[in-house]
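Bumping with the actual sequence this time:
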Amino acid sequence: MNTHALIDYYKAIEGASQQMLAAAQMEDWDEVVRLEGACAVLIEQLHASARAQALPAEHRPEKTRIMHRILRNDAEIRYLTEPWLSDLDRLFAGRATALH
């Protein structure tokens, strides 16, 4: 296995999270959901690869930096989606009362 493969997964997840943030900033919720699915696939691939090989020590500082950027992107995405999720809650609450 390529020794750079694990860090490449982290970089790919970071790239997808940046794309998700850009989509959320444009209120393109379908794209956010699509990219969230892509992230989930990448994370599963990372987990599978990590079981077969440990991340080399020299990549750990870079992993930490990448993880911090992913977490910042995630926090911003959550902030941007809160109004959208509230709208969905109101929409579904209205439907639930209309069905009963």
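The tokens above came from a reply further down the thread. The CA atoms of residues 14 and 70 lie 5 Å apart.
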